[in-house]
Write a structure and sequence with these properties.
The protein has a 3-stranded antiparallel β-sheet. Strand 2 and strand 3 form a beta hairpin. It is globular and about 35 Å long. The longest helix has 26 residues. The protein is of the alpha+beta class.
Length: 73
């Protein structure tokens, strides 16, 4: 996530040399590319941490620091 980033609420994911963006609300792919396996892991992580991601999005829109979100176990 980036401060004052464009709507809709989303996050940026990176895997090796690949980058992609996904909507927080429903995991919709927005831009970029990730290999299928990496995308599956990202969407699993999103399902677990959706509320935390939205809270971070809201905080960053108010110029507050985001909280760290745990990786997949």
């Amino acid at each position: 996530m980036y401060y004052n980033d464009h709507a809709p609420p989303h996050f940026h994911a990176r895997y090796a040399e690949y980058k992609a963006e996904y909507a927080i609300a429903d995991g919709a792919f927005l831009a970029g590319y990730l290999p299928r396996r990496a995308e599956t892991l990202i969407l699993d992580w999103l399902a677990i941490h959706r509320d935390e991601l939205q809270a971070n999005w809201d905080a960053m829109r108010d110029d507050q620091a985001p909280q760290r979100i745990a990786p997949l176990p």
